[in-house]
Design brief:
Elements (H helix, E strand, L loop, with lengths): L1 H14 L16 H6 L5 H6 L14 E5 L7 E6 L7 E6 L7 H13 L4 E6 L9 H10 L2 H15 L4 E7 L1 H12 L4 E7 L7 H4 L5 E7 L7 H13 L4 E6 L15 H18 L1
Parallel strand pairs: 3-4, 3-5, 5-6, 6-7, 7-8
Antiparallel strand pairs: 1-2, 2-4
Length: 281
């Protein structure tokens, strides 16, 4: 009898093998910078960025500085500090043009509106500033993500371990505003994205501590409404705070030197950003 039952058991295993759980390879996500930089291969994207207009800007506050980075190659920034020491910081991150006078003027604008904040406009191009859109495309496609991450980490080191940091950026810098929020850990309190590429990898978003404000242009062809909706879905699944404001406008609607500029929307988005920072930092 014992041998009979053993035989039946062996036959059952042969006829009805245990169903194995399939093992799928991990999903590979393209880094947002790589994905955004690929837009520079699109002639429509390049043509949408008209040549840089001259910005009337005279530095009233702030200085160009250098700060230490882990790889030994110092990074550049434009820094404005209040008269009294403060642990409140805003990192301002440039568009694909580089750290030009327009971004320095924006940094000064944020400094004037926010009370007792340090405002630091970071240079992710290591001193290079594009004068035309073809050069801007070349610079954006030539960045090395590890170097940019070291610059961001160096900025946090410069601000100090007690710093409470907010980040804001546009276009190329919009994506890096979010990346700065991720890299900043608990020190990052608020990150604002102006029509930049969101992070799509949930494993990276999981490390985000900052609240996020996403300001997007519903008419644009690259950071499309579908991209924004997927970002909202990912953040909701991870229970991460996200506020999204969509404007019926084109890419770069907040830049007064661009033909796509819409003053009403730009002013409203700026006020939203200021209030977002004040409530969290």
């Amino acid at each position: 009898m014992k041998f009979f039952l053993t035989g039946l058991f062996a036959i059952a295993i042969f006829l009805f093998p245990k169903e194995e759980t399939p093992v799928y390879p991990p999903v590979q996500f393209c880094h947002p910078t790589t994905e955004f930089a690929s837009f520079a291969d699109d002639s429509q994207f390049i043509e949408a960025h008209y040549e840089q207009a001259t910005v009337d800007f005279m530095v009233e506050k702030g200085n160009d500085i250098k700060f230490a980075v882990e790889d030994g190659e110092k990074a550049n920034a434009f820094l404005i500090q209040p008269d009294e020491p403060s642990d409140k910081w805003i990192f301002v991150i440039h568009e694909w043009w580089g750290l030009n006078d327009h971004i320095k003027k924006e940094a000064e604008k944020y400094f004037n509106e926010l009370e007792n904040y340090n405002v630091m406009a970071l240079d992710l191009y290591d001193g290079k500033v594009a004068g035309d859109r073809e050069t801007a495309a070349k610079y954006m496609q030539g960045v090395k993500v590890p170097r940019l991450e070291l610059i961001i980490r160096g900025a946090y080191e410069f601000a100090g371990e007690n710093a409470k940091v907010g980040t804001v950026g546009w276009c190329f810098g919009g994506g890096w505003s979010l990346q700065s929020g991720i890299l900043g850990g608990e020190q990052a309190k608020a990150s604002v994205i102006f029509y930049g590429m969101p992070e799509k990898d949930p494993a990276k978003l999981k490390n985000l501590s900052a609240d996020v404000l996403g300001i997007f242009a519903s008419q644009e062809q690259w950071i499309t409404p579908e991209v924004v909706q997927q970002f909202e879905k990912n953040m909701k699944l991870l229970n991460k705070p996200l506020t999204v404001k969509n404007y019926d406008a084109q890419h770069a609607f907040a830049n007064p030197s661009r033909p796509a500029y819409v003053k009403e929307y730009a002013d409203e988005a700026f006020d939203l950003t200021i209030n977002f920072f004040k409530e969290r930092i």
